[in-house]
Amino acid sequence: MSHFANFIAGEPVGANHTTANVNPSDTNDVIGDFSSGTKADVAEAIAAAKQAFPAWSRTTPQERHDILKRAADEVLARKEELGRILSREEGKTLAEGVGEAGRAGQVLSFFAGETLRLNGEMMGSVRPGVGIEVTREPVGVVGLITPWNFPIAIPAWKLAPALAYGNTVVIKPADLVPHSAWALVDILQRAGLPKGVLNLVMGKGSVVGAAMLAHPDIAAISFTGSVATGRLVAAACVASTPMKKVQLEMGGKNPLVVLDDADLKVAVDCAVNGAFFSTGQRCTASSRLIVTDTVHDAFVAALVERMKGLIVDDALKAGTHIGPVVDQKQLEQDEHYIRIARDEGARLIWGGERLNRQTPGFYLQPALFTETTNAMRISREEVFGPIANVIRVKTYDEALHVANDTDFGLSAGICTTSLKYASHFRRNVEAGMVMVNLPTAGVDYHVPFGGRKGSSYGPREQGAYAREFYTTVKTAYIAAG
Question: For this UniProt entry, which residues form the secretion signal (predicted)?
């Protein structure tokens, strides 16, 4: 069996304990043993990053550009291989895995360019003979904690800006899916990063993540994961001495509104893609389908017909539409919410059953509930599985009210042929990202990603907006003569 070590100060570092990385499409397939880091490993990684920071933060934009561009080119050249690695360990279909690997390469390429576009301001003072220069500088050693559902794209869109703007990094990927992040770090190391600039410590959040949060030499933490853990991360960053800069992405309960005038085929396509692709394991998934009364029955009937044709199978098998749930724990959580919804009076109109396939895996038939209200737990809490519920409303105004009646605010969508309603929804829905006649999931790599309320905290990720987190602003006054 292959063994994968941590990367600290540019060298592989083994561990006394390892974690087996298991294929959710075939639990007999163990991908490899991955080192489980300790508090001491974290301290060593942070020390290496701290030592590397002064020199790396003063490299030229061209040096950082060239390294990121070489890494981007290798990721894009190997996207088929990296996509297979991803799909094998996470369970999303091979097409989705290859697409995500390609996205990681595009992110690296974008931020290679951003190294050359970082600028400042010169302005005059209200005092004669005084000039003002406003510049951006790297924040220091940055800790990155990434989730299991996008195991190469999210590490890429955190790592790329962190490095582009001159920070050094300690990254902890989700312990369920370490191989994709390991491969990405390996590529960046070989692209020419100096020793200590990028350090990888794998293992449990309760050990590695906690040690990162407690260490005084980490200046900033970027975290993607659950709301509960995100709150703990924020509290720890504020309580630390010195205080840490913090960025959180924590999920969603995203509405897709379907109005009477919607193109039915477009609406069903948006619902299937948003609710069930990637096994529903996306923070931008369309888990609440809010449908006006006149079109409700036709929409549900058409959606069920589409669901009947979805093939749930091995993620690497040709023709698979939906792969397995990521692991046994997540499968049990999905089934738990199916029982809750039924107990609350929701009608399970299709799916929700465990499936047996040629290989042992965590296969779940996509589930659709009707006769639900926005007060039910199935409408309030993020399930993170291939489960959606339909909420019947009478009018657009009621649909907008229901869409906004949530503790989350990441993504929201509307299907309509009315410019009036599309424009009003875009302005008045309480979400960080809005989609009109498109799935709620799917955001380009060069635009800001993030939400409101309980979905996000701190500056946006991705695109040029990433500089708000990964740099700090300095204002300097210069007196003439």
Answer: none
The answer to whether residue 63 is catalytic is no
pLDDT for 25-55, tens place per residue? 999 999 999 999 999 999 999 999 999 999 9
Tell me the CB-side half-sphere exposure of residue 480, using CA atoms within 13 A.
Answer: 7
Query: Tokens 């449990």 identify what position?
Result: 204
Q: Which residues of the chain have pLDDT under 50?
A: none
If residue 181 lies in a helix (H) or strand (E), which one and from where to where?
helix 178-190
How is the chain split into domains, by residue range?
3-250+455-479, 255-436
Q: Does the domain spanning 255-436 belong to CATH 3.40.50.2300?
A: no
Helix crossing, 419-428 with 396-404: angle to 10°? 20
pLDDT at 149: 97
Give the homologous superfamily in CATH for domain 3-250+455-479: Aldehyde Dehydrogenase; Chain A, domain 1 (3.40.605.10)
Catalytic residue among 44, 74, 249, 335: 249
Q: How many CB atoms lie within 10 A of CB 210?
A: 16
Arithmetic mean of pLDDT over the chain: 97
* Tally of CB atoms within 10 A around 252: 33
Q: 6 forms bridges with which residues in the sheet?
A: 13
State residue 480's pLDDT score: 81
